[in-house]
Design brief:
- This protein is mainly beta.
- Helices cover 9% and strands 54% of the residues.
- It has an eight-stranded antiparallel beta barrel with strand order 1-2-3-4-5-6-7-8.
């Protein structure tokens, strides 16, 4: 996955010189929404960090690629739901996510204009992430095996250029995953079927909240039809 991201980045620099590029990082927190622990939608309780690359096709939209590493955890003892408090389960998991998609700016964000600019933006696409398949036995959370699946990212944020080449953003992004076992509540292994619990008809979500800082470079684009 990391090699793919690097190849994609190098390809963009060497072959798309008529456009402007951004490269930088993300730093913030993560939380999950599922069958264990708190039920808050935005409640970062673990660290998340990653790399971001953008290829700006116009002042209004850019292709965006990211690689993010994060931990996810939940603890019934911290939940406001009495049934979960009495149950007392908890878990920890780690994910590595690659995401690719389209970022859309609500206002023109021409990176070659000197004045200060600010715009809200949204992003969506597809994410692919690696995680651990878990199960809970006797109150203890255990790893079954490593697995991977897809998720649908939905991000909202706001960004501004703080210098000519630096852009600072703040964003919150939820991911609807294609698994119901980030927390060990619904193991895929048929031998562990007796350990399943919770709502087995609802997949898990995870959320990244934090700041992005990117550096812009590249030749001045035309932003017009060929």
């Amino acid at each position: 996955m990391k090699r793919f991201f690097l190849i994609l980045f190098v390809f963009g620099i060497t072959n798309l010189n008529a456009q402007i590029h951004e490269i930088g990082g993300f730093l913030g927190g993560s939380n999950y929404i599922g069958d264990i622990g708190k039920t808050n939608y935005i409640n970062p309780n673990e660290i998340a960090f990653g790399l971001i690359y953008k290829w700006n096709r116009s002042p209004r939209h850019a292709w965006r690629f990211s690689l993010t590493q994060a931990n996810l955890s939940g603890d019934d003892a911290k939940s406001g739901v009495s049934g979960r408090k009495q149950r007392g389960y908890k878990f920890e998991n780690s994910i590595t996510e690659f995401s690719a998609g389209l970022e859309f700016n609500f206002f023109d964000f021409n990176l070659h204009q000197m004045e200060r600019k600010m715009t809200p933006y949204v992003y969506t696409g597809v994410s692919y992430f690696v995680y651990n398949e878990l199960f809970i036995a006797g109150g203890d959370t255990k790893k079954d095996y490593g697995d991977s699946t897809f998720a649908i990212p939905m991000i909202v944020g706001v960004k501004s250029n703080i210098t000519r080449n630096l852009i600072l953003g703040a964003e919150v992004g939820v991911r609807y995953t294609l698994t119901d076992n980030l927390d060990g509540s619904n193991p895929k292994n048929e031998n562990l079927e007796s350990f399943r619990f919770g709502n087995l008809n609802s997949n898990d979500w995870y959320v990244f909240s934090g700041l992005t800082l990117t550096y812009t470079f590249g030749e001045k684009p035309c932003y017009c039809a060929d």
